[in-house]
Amino acid sequence: MELQERIARDLLSIGAVFLRPEQPFTWASGIKSPVYCDNRLTLTAPDVRLDVENGLAETIKNNYPDCEVLMGTSTAGIAHAAITAHILGLPMGYVRSGAKDHGRGNQIEGKLEKGQKVVVVEDLISTGGSVIEVVNVLREAGAQVLGIASIFTYGMKKGLERLAAAGVQNISLSNFDAVCRVAAREGYIREEDIARLLAFRDDPSDESWIGGAK
Fold first, then answer.
1. If residue 26 lies in a helix (H) or strand (E), which one and from where to where?
2. What pTM does this model have?
3. Phi-psi domain of 186 (left: phi exceeds 0; alpha: psi -120 through 50; beta: other)
4. Closest CA to 199 of 183, 187, 211
5. Which residue in 46, 52, 40 sits closest to 9, CA to CA?
6. Torsion over CA of 139, 166, 172 and 121, rounded to 10 degrees?
7. What is the H or E stretch that residue 120 is in?
8. What is the Cα–Cα distance from 54 to 42, expressed in whole angstroms?
9. 89 — alpha (psi -120 to 50), left (phi > 0) or beta?
């Protein structure tokens, strides 16, 4: 089984990605969503965690071979960056959502030299806003950001456009399309639900998918 589908299967098996097209979740923004994602659950499932961290390590070795430092996003990417850095024998740190209001006022935690080649480790990418903020902080500090390695991406148009505009590459272990395929194959959803789920992914503000096949 290819990596994308293996990770999709892992995430579905522990409820890190949970699909519920008939009873949508409501996001803080008010948007109705057929999917709930909490990749923090991978940390409490050792077999899945091993797949994820080995997958991140291989992704970084294969796609960012010049990487010198891993930087996790706060807070969800920190543990994954730490474990993956341990596998690869690389230093790591993380980027806070804002500078500390005490001590040295750091926003970047860990040693980072100007010019160092960095890969950002993120757990989930939807619209891309938070991870691009991390990339910008690192660039402002003089780092050369090679790209992002993430566990899962929705592949939303807004996120793809933002990443392209920021000039940064993201490589995810799995994605929404792979999750939908595996979910249908293994009975989490019906085959006819896939089109509805992808319609949500393509335009989350359009709720017409909710009235799909029953």
1. strand 25-26
2. 0.93
3. alpha
4. 211
5. 52
6. 20
7. strand 117-125
8. 13
9. left
Q: How many helices (H) and strands (E) does the chain have?
A: 7, 10
**Residue 16 token pair:** 């890190």
CB 176 within 8 A of CB 33: no
One pLDDT digit (tens) per residue for the chain, 214 residues: 699 999 999 999 999 999 999 999 997 778 899 999 999 999 999 999 999 999 999 999 999 999 999 999 999 999 999 999 999 999 999 999 866 444 455 899 999 999 999 999 999 999 899 999 999 999 999 999 999 999 999 999 999 999 999 999 999 999 999 999 999 999 999 999 999 999 999 999 899 998 764 4
115 Cβ contact partners less than 8 Å away, ≥ 6 residues apart: 142, 143, 144
Six-digit token pair at 65? 């071979």
Distance CA 50, CA 33 (A): 29
